[in-house]
Amino acid sequence: MIQIKMFSAKDGDSFLIKAGNEPNSHVLIDGGFSDTFRKFVKPELDEIASRNGKLGLVVVSHIDEDHIKGIIKLVETNGSHSNPSIIEIENIWHNSIRAITNYESNIDSLAPKNKNIINRLNLLGYSTPDQDENISAKQGSALAKLLVQNSYHWNFGEGYQPICKEILPCFSLNADISFQLLTPNQEILNLLKRHWEKELRNRGFIGNISESVFDDGFEFLLSREKSIVKSELITATQNLEKAYIPDTSITNRSSISFVLQSEGKRILFLGDAWAEDVEQSLIDIYGAQEKIVFDAIKISHHGSRSNTSVRLLELIDAPIFFISTIGRKHGHPDMPVLLEIVKRNASFKRKIYFSENNKKIETLKKFEKEFNFEVINASNGWIKI
Questions:
Q1: From its phi and psi, is residue 122 left (phi > 0), alpha (psi between -120 and 50) or beta?
Q2: Class of residue 52 by CB neighbours under 10 A (exposed 0-12, middle 13-18, buried 19+)
Q3: At what angle do helices 42-50 and 65-78 cross, to 10 degrees?
Q4: Left (φ > 0), alpha (ψ -120 to 50) or beta: where does 43 sit?
Q5: CB count, 10 Å around CB of 203?
Q6: For each of the chain's 385 residues, which pLDDT tens digit applies?
Q7: pTM of this prediction exceeds 0.70
Q8: Chain center to CA of 70
Q9: Are the C-beta atoms of 272 and 255 separated by less than 8 Å?
Q10: Most exposed among 31, 111, 227, 245, judged by the fewest C-beta atoms under 10 Å?
Q11: CB atoms within 10 A of CB 370
């Protein structure tokens, strides 16, 4: 049996997976914000550790703060990989700048102007302060720096290997859990690298960018990169085909998305990935002859209309969908996405699980009888698959 806990992460994502009987059969996918970790994730990890369990894998889907800040707090609190304060962590997936370049870290060798540019970026911090602490976001550290300082096993080494389809198409955590990687591919990571280099040039960086790795600046700057979406009113019953506007955020596009497989079941975790990339990857793996029915799907980017297309939903389905957001910051999920999910014919009754008491729940509930589905607020409770 697979069990999933979807934590209350406000506008972010954080999931804990339990499958199988091995001590390392626990997977943490994203960490939400810092208070997500303190209030909800840490107590679960304490309980796992009390039974001599450990995290076989921590997945940081991408560097947006609503996914990464809880993981930063986990690593800060856990301390050294060899002598953890909370729980043993076998491996972490995180594509920071060192994973997508061949740069060497040597900021002291930079010209004074370039050094000042990088130092200013390193002071940016994340744009949202920690909500439970009276500190500025600018005082935070990048995850990559913490992983290096505490000697974590990161991307199967020291963080210099990327997690992407070409290098790691499949991975078995143990006899009970395996992963089929969907995104990113090497081309997407190259685009992320070029975006970073362009941002440095725009700030006046002169000379050879390949002189140095800047973990803090890379994470802080690109976590602020946003999609460009036309601001137009979306009605509750608007057709998704008309409402869909493809995502433009290369940070979202770099999300690690995958199929988690255990005990003959398949769960699709999409991070904030682009619909078009997921579609192509699924077709490459499974073919396009028939709809792919998973046992559960974590919908991309909190149910945004820019990351779930009609074409993608024609390709996939499941009896269980996860929507992780409170909806305060961006108004997610978008109703055209939710209605497109539930209105399709199926041989099963769908369950739509929300991580928070989102205001879209009441609107969606009005359609439960018409389209034969159920809406459930499942924040911090175990869901059996």
A1: alpha
A2: exposed
A3: 40
A4: alpha
A5: 15
A6: 899 999 999 889 999 999 988 999 999 999 999 999 999 999 999 999 999 999 999 999 998 888 999 999 999 999 999 999 999 999 999 998 888 875 555 555 566 766 666 566 555 555 555 544 433 333 345 898 899 999 999 999 988 899 999 999 999 999 999 999 999 999 999 998 888 778 777 777 766 655 344 666 667 666 666 555 444 445 556 789 999 999 999 999 999 999 999 999 999 999 999 999 999 999 999 987 789 999 999 999 999 999 999 999 999 999 999 999 977 777 789 999 999 999 999 999 999 999 988 888 889 999 999 999 999 998 778 999 9
A7: yes
A8: 12
A9: yes
A10: 111
A11: 9
Query: In angstroms, rounded to a whole number, what is the distance separating the alpha carbons of residues 204 and 243?
Result: 38
Question: How far, in Å, CA of 33 to CA of 60, rounded?
Answer: 12
CA separation (Å) from 228 to 127, 222, 248, 249, 250?
18, 14, 6, 7, 11
DSSP-derived pairing of the beta strands 350-354 and 320-323: parallel
Degrees to nearest 5, angle at CA 211 with 205 and 215: 80
3-state percent helix, strand, coil for the chain, nearest multiple of 5: 35, 20, 50
Distance of CA 303 to the CA centre of its chain: 13
Q: What sign has the CA pseudo-torsion 55, 56, 58, 61? A: negative
Q: State both tokens at 119.
A: 């130092």
Side-chain half-sphere exposure of 250, counting CA atoms within 13 A: 15
Tokens of 108: 């002291």
Chain centroid, CA 231 distance in Å: 25
- C-alpha to C-alpha distance for 333 and 371, rounded to whole angstroms: 18
Cis peptide leading into 23, omega within 30 of 0? no
